[in-house]
Amino acid sequence: IRLVVEEGLNQLPYTECTVTTPTGHKYEGVRFEKGNCGVSIMRSGEAMEQGLRDCCRSIRIGKILIQSDEETQRAKVYYAKFPPDIYRRKVLLMYPILSTGNTVIEAVKVLVEHGVQPSVIILLSLFSTP
């Protein structure tokens, strides 16, 4: 999970900076530009939150609960909680196992309804099936 999160973070804009380690050594590193957040699609997406927190301790994380209706097999949103300024942020959408894609499509629709541009949504997924 951590490797997928790190690859997603590589897609975010950053600036180079000098970091002082706890032992006092200088190191050339990078600093992410402000305005990034994660959104986990509950329940399985929550498994990726710790990997994101390990890499970016202060990152804001939103949640969305989407389940398929048993009769229609359509994805339905039951809960969504995002940072209030999500429309200004780049979003790492976390959903580890992608099958039909209906859940992710619905999640992107909800994010767009909250003002997020589709071009700033990065999907983090471990497995995808045809």
Automatic annotation (TrEMBL):
Q: Supply the SUPFAM superfamilies for this chain.
A: PRTase-like
Give a yes or no for keyword Glycosyltransferase in this entry: yes
Q: Name one GO molecular function term.
A: glycosyltransferase activity
Domain Phosphoribosyltransferase stretches:
1-128
Q: Which Gene3D superfamilies match?
A: 3.40.50.2020
Annotated signal sequence is none
UniProt xrefs under Pfam families: UPRTase
Q: Which UniProt keywords apply?
A: Glycosyltransferase, Transferase
Q: What is this protein called?
A: UPP phosphoribosyltransferase
